[in-house]
Amino acid sequence: MLALAAGMFALAPFMINAAPNEATMGLVYKIYFFHMPSAWMFMVAAITAGIASARFLFLKRPSADGWALAAGELAVVFGAFTLVTGPLWARKAWGVWWVWDARLTSSLMLFMIFVAYLLLRKYGGPGSDKLGAGMALFGMANVPFIYVSVNYWRTFHPLTSVVPTLPVEMGIPLWYCVTAFTLLFIVLLRMRTRLEHQRARVEALYLLEDES
Amino acid sequence: MMRAFFRVAWIVVKKDLTVEVRSLEILSTTIFFAVTVVLMFSFGLVVDGRPLNDVAAAILWVAIAFSGTLALGRTFERERHNDTLRALLLAPADRPALYVGKLAGILLLLALVQVVLVPLVGLLFGAPIFDHGVHLLALLAGGTLGFTAVGTLFAAMLVRARSRDVLLPIMLYPMTVPVMIAGVRGTAALFQPTPNLEATQFWIALLVFFDVVFVTLALWTFDPVMTD
Amino acid sequence: MRLRSLLLIACLAVMPMAAHAAAQPPPGDFVPVDETVPGEQIPALPLIAAAYGFIWVGVLGYVWSIGRRLQKVEAELADLESRGK
């Protein structure tokens, strides 16, 4: 659990780090320091869930399922962070809560896929570990398609990126936040996977008890 | 070996056809449901007696998605009811061949539904469905195949799951968003006063690409996912 | 026990942030007018507070949720193992 402490401590002081860096663009751009790492971790979680699901399905590694479920849950958590902080920033920057731009809409769709994944795992009954794995795999394969179709959906000619390029002084707190979020992600993933694996052991023990 | 594969698929299709032809239950109810969907949406989207822009394309594809979901659910419900899916899986047949067989059957069903649906939409919204028939056919074929490929796998997966009625759309709709977008935008580009063929071709290409990737993925995952 | 040390570290982590926020001068005049929203002044502070607050609450809440579930499962595990012996 030392990793956990490291993760939390890394996260805390960076608030102090980011705050004094008063950008000339306005206070609200600070949201970006949390919004972007959240978005990255969302993607990382989604990919992890996809890879773990593939290993579970094709390599038949039972432990991979624990990783997949943990990563799926984290995808929903970090996805929620991204989708809440994004509009909060957009409200100030563009005057509206939501714009149907490619990035936001694609993220929303991927988020929906993982919420559906969690619903399936929770309510699908026995055997939903395999079903979920199939679904997570499809979800990961779908990411480029979602992005391309949403991108060209708006106009036939894709819009240029709405995220401004950052000046150098803002780079440092940003990378600090990315590192902190990455640490946080790893710690949470390990904790959540451990929970899943312990649960599997409990179930196995119950089965053993029933049989004897 | 390929011949055996297609023979198994064909047997599955024939079986489904035979059962369906007896009562025509799924076909007729799905067609009527699709028509209801079109009318329901028309009430919301036709303002002052004139349809909003691009509404014909949108309504067409929403009707395909909704009726497709129902058809998928009910086809597999029939399997579950008679426990025939387990029998099929126990048979010494190539598993992916079963998938292809079910897929072909449902595609046929949806094609028949669209034979009624597309002219209806053309009639109600004055959409030029015959002007670029080949393009429209390509869009419909590509889109329906993409939607059904994913849907058949998910519906088969869910046959023994709890809450399967609502889980199928929950899983299917977000996953097939690219198909819906491509279908609607492609059809809308085609129905415009001056059709944008370049755009339509782009969307057709995207659909073909999607279909290739996801049918392959479904063939790979059908076996491991359906094993107990 | 592990859960408690977890929560303690989390609280310690939050404190520097709270202290810093309290020490900051009110934003007032040093937030420039955002030129992409002509003529409309949307106060930025509530938005930022909501954004960061949401993430902090989310992270802490999730950590707490995992900790609670982990405690339950490990208790069950210990119980099962002692029964098996």
Number of helices of chain A: 6
Estimated share of beta-strand residues of chain A: under 5%
Order of helices and strands of chain A: HHHHHH
Strand content of chain C: under 5%
Number of domains of chain A: 1
What is the gyration radius of chain A calculated from CA atoms? 20 Å
Largest sheet of chain C: none
Oligomer classification: heterotrimer
Task: Give the proportion of residues in helices of chain C.
Answer: over 70%
Mean pLDDT of chain A: 79
Helix count of chain C equals 2
User: How many strands of chain C?
Assistant: 0
Rounded to an integer in angstroms, the radius of gyration calculated over CA atoms of chain C is 21 Å
Class based on secondary structure composition and strand pairing of chain A: mainly alpha
How are helices and strands ordered from N to C of chain C? HH
How many β-strand runs of chain A?
A: 0
Helix content of chain A: over 70%
Question: Could you characterize the architecture of this molecule?
Answer:
The complex is a heterotrimer of chains A (212), B (228) and C (85). Chain A has 212 residues and is an all-alpha fold. Helices cover 80% and strands 0% of the residues of chain A. Chain B has helices spanning 2-23, 25-45, 55-81, 84-90, 95-125, 133-158, 164-175, 177-191, 197-226; strands at 46-47, 50-51. Chain B is mostly helical and 228 residues long. Chain B has one domain. The model of chain B has no long low-confidence stretch (mean pLDDT 88). Chain B starts with a helix and ends with a helix. Chain C has 2 helices and no strands. Chain C has one domain. With 85 residues, chain C is mainly alpha-helical. Chains in contact: A-B, A-C.
